[in-house]
Design a protein that fits this description.
Layout (H helix, E strand, L loop, with lengths): L1 H5 L15 H31 L2 E2 L9 E2 L3 H8 L2 H32 L6 H9 L6 H11 L6 H7 L16 H25 L4 H9 L4 H12 L1 H16 L3 H6 L11 H11 L3 H26 L7
């Protein structure tokens, strides 16, 4: 017993402390306030739109308010010719604007990607319209299209056209006039994105193509264009969504006129909600527009094989 007591007991191993979970949760805790704010500013309006799309809601006629079910959607597709007219014009507007902006933006990007004297100044001038807000762009072009002090007066001085004509009030000229105004601001968007992607194309590919005797057209078709595929797909998709939802420029230039010739679906929704106070029907139209954009975006990304390898 004495010998056993004399033998010292080995010290007990230190107890391992459980690793605190706080460091792992810290990043999520830090971004939680911003995430909650974004959720509140995005999720709540979206849910509200879906809710009011099933309601008859007009603050000026409260006795008619109540649950409507799918009556607003049925009315849009069967009894509202203006819905189809504005949807058709929206599709036309998107196709024409995005197509022309892509074409001119690609051409500008290829030009300013070359080496020449004053390239930095040229790039600044090309990209400057994108820095101008949509309302200010509209104000500039309203002045340019003014029948007394704008382009038409100077053309009339040269014997082209007549005095007092306004391109924005003529149904035969209002669409191209609005297209030109939006091109001025939209082309730099494509030029910026495409130029940024052009900077990453290796010069070795072009040098090897030149050694093999490939022409400039073949180099563009087999080297430049495949490399720009994802940038073009993404930029056209983003711009198509923005052009579909374009309200400020057309509202300031034409107000949707003349005779509703330039009324897009979002502009029709704005007039239905703000002017007519029919928020239930406007919410239904917004839901339809959301579904159309979502469906077209998914189909476009699938058909374009965005992110896939280019053969």
């Amino acid at each position: 017993m004495a010998q056993a007591a004399a033998v010292a007991k080995p010290p007990a191993p230190p107890r391992r402390r459980r690793a605190s979970a706080t460091p792992r949760r810290l990043p999520y805790l830090l971004i939680a306030p911003a995430a909650l704010l974004m959720l509140g500013f995005i999720a709540y309006p979206v849910i509200s739109v879906f809710y009011y799309s099933l309601q008859n809601y007009n603050p000026t006629k409260p006795w008619r308010n109540g649950y409507a079910g799918f009556d607003n959607f049925v009315h849009a597709f069967t009894d509202d010719p203006q819905f189809w007219q504005t949807l058709t014009f929206s599709a036309k507007w998107v196709v024409v604007e995005v197509g022309l902006q892509l074409l001119f933006g690609l051409a500008l990007a290829l030009i300013v990607n070359q080496t020449f004297v004053g390239r930095s100044l040229g790039r600044a001038l090309v990209f400057s319209p994108w820095a101008v807000s949509g309302v200010l762009t509209s104000a500039i072009w309203v002045l340019l299209y003014n029948s007394q002090t704008g382009i038409t007066r100077y053309l009339a001085d040269l014997g082209i056209g007549s005095y007092g004509t306004s391109w924005l009030s003529d149904t035969s000229t209002v669409f191209p006039a609005a297209v030109i105004a939006d091109l001025w601001r939209g082309v730099p968007f494509f030029a910026i994105l495409i130029l940024a992607d052009l900077q990453s194309v290796s010069r070795d590919l072009y040098e090897a193509a030149e050694v093999d005797g490939a022409s400039r057209l073949k180099q563009f078709w087999h080297i430049t264009l495949p490399h720009l595929k994802d940038a073009i797909v993404l930029s056209t998709l983003l711009r198509a969504v923005w052009e579909f939802n374009n309200v400020d420029l057309l509202y300031t230039l034409t107000g949707g006129g003349p005779a509703g010739e330039t009324t897009t679906l979002p502009l029709y929704i704005a007039n239905t909600s703000v002017d007519a106070h029919n928020f239930g029907y406007a919410s239904a139209l917004t839901t339809v527009a959301f579904v159309i954009l979502l469906f077209c975006s998914i189909v476009y990304l699938r058909l374009s094989k965005f992110g896939g390898e280019t053969k």
